[in-house]
Design goal:
The complex is a heterodimer. By secondary structure, chain A is α/β, with parallel strands linked by helices. Chain A has 2 helices and 6 strands. Chain B is of the alpha+beta class. Classes of the chains: A alpha/beta, B alpha+beta. The A-B interface holds A 1-4, 7-8, 11-12, 15-16, 19, 21-28, 30, 32, 34, 52-56, 63, 91, 93-94, 96 and B 100, 102, 183-188, 192, 195-200, 202-203, 205, 208-209, 289, 293, 295-298, 300-301, 304-305, 307-308, 311-312, 315.
Chain lengths: 123, 359
């Protein structure tokens, strides 16, 4: 038993050193974002995020959508949760599509996912 | 006056085919049940252990198969026991196995056919007077995935069932930890629809996933223990009460989520597939280790607990034999059963490798 505990401590130490362990968040506290609208303005980006929540009702499963707005200057910092006003942690890794009027769509693919669906919209 | 009960049906290690008789508390009857099946070369070492009980103990082995060093090793350890009384065969386990090993290395059985199969593999048996359980040693890792039924069926059926047992072993240890990792740190491991279902299920639960899982595991263990100790009449009431409270009422009250009940129930039931209570206890310990490591480090914690489990399995030894060792004959009868023309024994346990020709 002692050897097992020593091995666990040893592995834990190296795991913390080598790997970036994801932050702890309960599912209740995160908002799963499935769609983002990014509008390029003069010197900032207008972000509109859509959170999806599954609801069980008597007639089956439905989805509820909530919208959150944000304005940022540097698109690379979109994933940093500076939305303290909403008291939520936004989870961006399940985004399915981005609606945008910007030209730099390659940047969006680098930030989110290379396979993400990008749709052009008017300003 | 004869105070012994008669030979009855097996209570715990049930099988579909095979004999149904079981050992009783009388050592001479138990010896007869074995001698009835193995007539040639069956040797016995008689001992008396216990200052007050002078309990009769028999160490059985087949002289042409078993390694005499194993038998001598066992007898030496038994002779060194200085105890007031031996009430049951489990008392001997403390002296024969290493307490630091989490995995059980000695198996108890009440089946004569399983005991005789072990003798023919080169293992030794310890019969203890006043105990209906016989000790088989050394017990290796693959032996926990085998039942007597495996040798009464076709190889393909046996292989399928053994793979199911292996899957049950993995599920029972790692499923709760995997769920905790996925719902607290590593959301990217599941598709979005599954993540949303988990989120919907836990919407009104006030506790963290780890606390919820520990609550369910402890509740399940309390239910299992009370079901074991109560009489048959009361145990059905306890099962219904536990199922209603743990299932329906707890979910309706929003204390636990339905998905957590499913996860813990599947992992607990998967652990009960093994007849050895010692292995079930080991699985429970590793389940909790995996749970704690997953909540601390996510999927990396789960991998760490897997590495620790693997290390423990490979590091365990019993009487100098490795718990998990490479042997071609043993591998052909491990997680699957492969029928060969000439059946052979584990070369680490015995020099008499040829069992016989079956075709």
């Amino acid at each position: 038993m002692k050897r097992i505990l020593i091995i666990l401590v040893f592995l834990s130490f190296f795991t913390i050193l080598i790997f970036d362990v994801p932050k702890y968040n309960e599912l209740n506290n995160i908002s799963v974002i499935d769609k983002i609208t990014i509008k390029c303005r003069d010197n900032y980006y207008d972000i509109n995020m859509r959170e999806v929540t599954l609801l069980r009702k008597d007639n089956g499963i439905t989805f509820r959508y909530d919208y959150y707005k944000n304005k940022i200057k540097n698109i690379n910092k979109i994933k940093e949760n500076n939305l303290d006003k909403y008291h939520k942690v936004f989870y961006y890794d399940k985004i399915k599509s981005i609606d945008t009027n910007c030209s730099n769509v390659d940047d969006f693919k680098k930030i989110f996912n290379n396979n993400i669906n990008i749709k052009r919209i008017k300003s | 006056m004869n105070v012994n009960r008669s030979v009855s049906d097996v209570k715990s290690e049930l099988t579909i085919n095979g004999s149904k008789d079981c050992f009783i508390e009388d050592i001479d009857t138990n010896y007869s049940l074995i001698n009835k099946r193995i007539v040639k070369d069956l040797c016995c070492v008689d001992l008396n252990i216990g200052r007050y009980s002078k309990t009769k103990i028999k160490v059985l082995y087949v002289s042409s198969i078993a390694d005499i060093r194993l038998v001598n090793n066992i007898c030496n350890r038994l002779n060194n026991i200085n105890i007031d009384a031996i009430i049951d065969s489990s008392y001997l386990k403390n002296s024969l196995e290493d307490e630091n090993n989490l995995f059980p290395t000695i198996i108890e059985t009440e089946r004569p056919d399983k005991s005789c199969m072990a003798l023919l593999e080169g293992k030794a048996l310890i019969l203890v007077d006043n105990s209906p359980y016989v000790l088989i040693l050394p017990n290796l890792f693959f032996d926990f995935f085998h039942t007597p039924d495996d040798y009464y069926q076709k190889a393909i059926n046996t292989s399928f069932i053994r793979i199911i047992r292996l899957i049950a072993f993995i599920i029972s240890i790692f499923l709760p930890g995997f769920f905790i990792a996925v719902t607290t740190r590593n959301y990217n491991l599941v598709p979005i629809n599954v993540l949303l279902i988990f989120k919907a299920g836990r919407a009104f639960v006030p506790f963290s996933a780890f606390i919820e899982a520990m609550f369910m595991i402890i509740s399940f263990e309390i239910l299992k223990e009370s079901d074991l100790r109560m009489s048959h009449a009361a145990s059905s009431s306890i099962s219904i009460l536990g199922g209603l409270i743990l299932g329906d009422a707890a979910v309706a009250a929003g204390i636990v989520s339905p998905i957590m009940i499913i996860i813990i129930a599947i992992s607990s039931i998967a652990g009960l597939i093994f007849p050895s209570q010692e292995l079930v206890n080991t699985i429970r310990i590793y389940k909790i280790i995996a749970l704690i490591m997953s909540s601390l480090f996510g999927i990396y914690g789960l991998i760490m607990s897997f590495l620790t489990l693997t290390y423990n399995i490979f590091d365990t030894r019993i009487f100098g034999y490795k718990y998990l060792d490479y042997d071609k004959n043993e591998l052909l009868d491990s997680f699957f059963k492969y029928n060969t023309k000439i059946k052979k024994r584990n070369s680490h346990l015995t020099n008499n490798k040829i069992r016989g020709k079956y075709k």
